[in-house]
Structure formats: C-alpha cells, structure tokens
Amino acid sequence: MAILGNIVKQAIKLGDKLIDLEKGHQAQQATLRHLLNYARFTAIGRAYDFEDILKSDDLEAAFREALPYFSYEEINQKYWQPLREGKINQSWLGSPDYFALSSGTTGKESKRIPVTQEMLDSIQRAGRLQILALNELDLPADFFEKEILMLSSSVDLKKHKGFLEGEISGISASTIPFWFRSYYRPGEEIASINDWDKRVERIAKEAPKWDIGAISGIPSWVELMLEKIIQHHKVDHIHQVWPNLEVYTSGGVAFSPYEKSFRQKLGRPIHVLDTYLASEGYLATQLDPKSEGMRLLLDNGVYYEFVPHKAEHIDESGKVKPSARALNISEVEEDEEYVLIISTNAGAWRYMIGDTVKIIDKEKAEIQITGRTKFFLNKVGSQLSVQKIDAAIKALESAEDLSIKEYTVSAQRNEEGEFEHYWYLGLDERTAVSAEKMASRLDEYLQEANKNYKVARNKALKGLRVTALDADTFYDWNDHQKKKGGQVKMEKVMGDEQFAKWQDFLEQQS
Q: Among positive and negative, which fits the CA dihedral 78, 80, 86, 91?
C-alpha cells in the first residue's frame, strides 16, 4: 500500500482536521482550561491555586497574575528534579516515562525535560497534520510509495533512575506507530548507533538500497549526511542516489541560512517544509506549502503567550523580566517579534523556552522562528536578532556569490578597548573575497536595514571583523563539546565565556 495513502487514511480515521482559524483564540482558552483542570491536584496546581484560577471570569488574566515566568532552572529545581527522585504529581499528574535531553548550544550539562504520553500523542497528531499538508503539494503519484528518512538522534534510549532518556527526536522516532515502521529509514538498528559519525557512515553505505521520497531533520546535519552519501558513492548530487526524493521537512532552526548550500547537493528542486519540534513539544508546522510561516498548533496541548522582544523586557541572561506583560494569540501584532512562553501537557508552565518568533499572519496564527533570547546581540545597543543576522548573511552570499554554511558572532572589546562585532563565517570552499570586503558588505547592509545597529555604529560600536573558516571547523567545535548530530545547533551569538572557549579551540586547531 502507498505510504502516504496509508498514513492519510489513518489520519482521517482519527478525525484530524485543521482548526477553524476564526476560533483560534477560543481553542487556546479551551486548551488552557484543560491544562489547568488536569493539573489542579499536582504540586504546582496546589501551590498556585489552579482551582481558583479556573473559577475566574477571565481565565487568561487570572493565569497571568497567579503564575510567574519559569526558566528551566526554576521549574526543574521545584518540580522536575523531584520527579526523577521518585515523587509523582509534580507539574503534571503521575510520572513521565521519558525525559528529553536538550543538547542546547553551550557546553553545559544537558537539560532534562519530562515527556508525557499526552505530549507524545500531540507530537504524533502534529505529524499527521503535516502529512495531510503534503497532499497539497504537486507530487508525482508514485511518491506515495516511497520511504521516509528521519535523521534523528539515537533511538537507543538510556535508562536512568527508572526513566528512559534521549533527545526528543530519538524519543519520537522510537515511539512511531507500528503501521509506519516498515516505511521508516534508516530503521531501528542503524538509528540505535550512538556515535553520529558511525551512524552516518552506515546510512551512506546503505543509501542505494532505499527508495527515499522524503527526509526530515535539522538542516546542518542533514546537509552533512547528504555530503557523506555523495562522497561515498562518488556522485554529483543526491538525486543520483535517491532519484525520487521530493520533500525535505526542516526543523530545529531556520532553514534560510542553509538554503543555498543545501540546494547545491540536489539534482533538481524539491519541496521544503518547516517544523517546530522542540524538546518541550511540537509547537508549529508548515501546513500551507505556499506560506513562508508555520502554523501554531492551537488545539494540541500547548498554550502560548508572547512577550514583545524588546531590550526592556529581557535581562542580560536572556530571561524575561517578571514585570513584562505577556500577550495571548488574539493580542499579538503581525511583523512583530516576541519571546515565546508555553504551558504544556508535559508539565511546563509559563515556561521560557528561549525562542523568539515573528507573527507573519495573525489570522492563520503563522510564525517564523527568529532566534534565541540568548542569541540577541545587544551589548552596545545594536539589537540584532538572529533573523537580522541571517538576513545579512544571505545578502553577503548573494552579493559575493558565497556559500556560508555556519557562522557565529560575538561583541567584544578590541585591542584599543573599543567594542567590535567579531564574525566567524564557515565557507563551503575557499574564496578570493577578502575578509575586509565581507566585513564592509555586512556592515553596509546592517546599517541600511537596522536603525538600532546604525545608531550603535555611530556611538559605541566601532565596526565589525570577519574571519573566514572552513565550514568543518564548526562541526569539529560541536564534536569538541561532545555535541554532534541530533538536535544540536551551532550557537549563532556567543557570550563572553563561550567566546573565550571558542577562541581557545581555534588556537588549538591552528
């Protein structure tokens, strides 16, 4: 039976359908009520009197007033760490079977985030909705007979204190429905290999045996996998190995910075769809192939709040200040950037997930991920988000015909004690374009496109420097930190401590 035909039939059988857009806010209110009602007898429910909140005439306002914002460190110490010590009913009823290890973007110890059965059900439902969206693409009929390769972290989950632990992509892959397993690649055996390089070596070796129609995974690691396959089989592009590849579902980070080099690995254009699967839940997915945004899943176990991404609302560590007022989905404005706050059916409450998003279509609740609150370059008032930096990178690529696969930026004092932005660019190949010319291009673009940057350049920010590196240096950096593959993302903006480690690493490589 055709793979998507089988999946779509399952989705229809389970009653999945797109939410009525006019009822998005009502769906969010119903979601919040369900979450509060389900957790009212938990430790956090009693501490913040969820039963009293549920009696309020304005549920969302009462919720905002009663609960503070929670960072990972705060909610983990009070409610999630006791779960791992054997307590139950902490921030969600019962006890989870899984904890997702969030690799993060620093060398610090991984976060451990509870994954409940309700959350897994929500993830599977979101996946089915996106498969329904594939039906809207202009795909050949035989696509529905092809296999899907999920480049996840290892599905060999580790048992720790009675719980199974792994990255969320590995947990999701290990719990896929039985009817999907025969179409899933690379298959459980290869997906269980913990060493990322060895796993990709096996994928490269086995690749010609598979008839892949779709791939999913984080862009940087999927692109690296494609390179390994191309090199292993001595071909020019991936379509010589997988001629029926039609769809790539991206996730974890914005695809745009990787688009140029990614498409160079292809023999012809394919459809690219974005997803937003975080360790805390499946938050959004691209349901309209013609749109540039992802649809927030408003009736799928997550309640969303939005704090305007402005310097006065964010402290130096990237956390939302207690005084900052959050907005609900009906109060946001298009083309504005917000810090995303979530409450979920895995026991996260007013949780600062650390991502920033832009509302690009309020009626459809469509967003774009613009960066991380910690990846906000504002030491001297430049107010550069990752999205603005990404745009500058794309402008440089276009102007100088470059392929920049990775980058990182930091604001540091130069030899004279003045602040400069230090840019490290990971290039696909050597270029005759000088570092000085690249710096000039970036500086000109940013001054023209961003008024805050221009103001900073005329005051405390003396300029920017560019260092061109081989793109593999960035992968070696992740390996050096024992963070490679899976959900790992390169830090786009570095603070002082991490930048010092980065410079030490580069000196060791020279």
A: positive
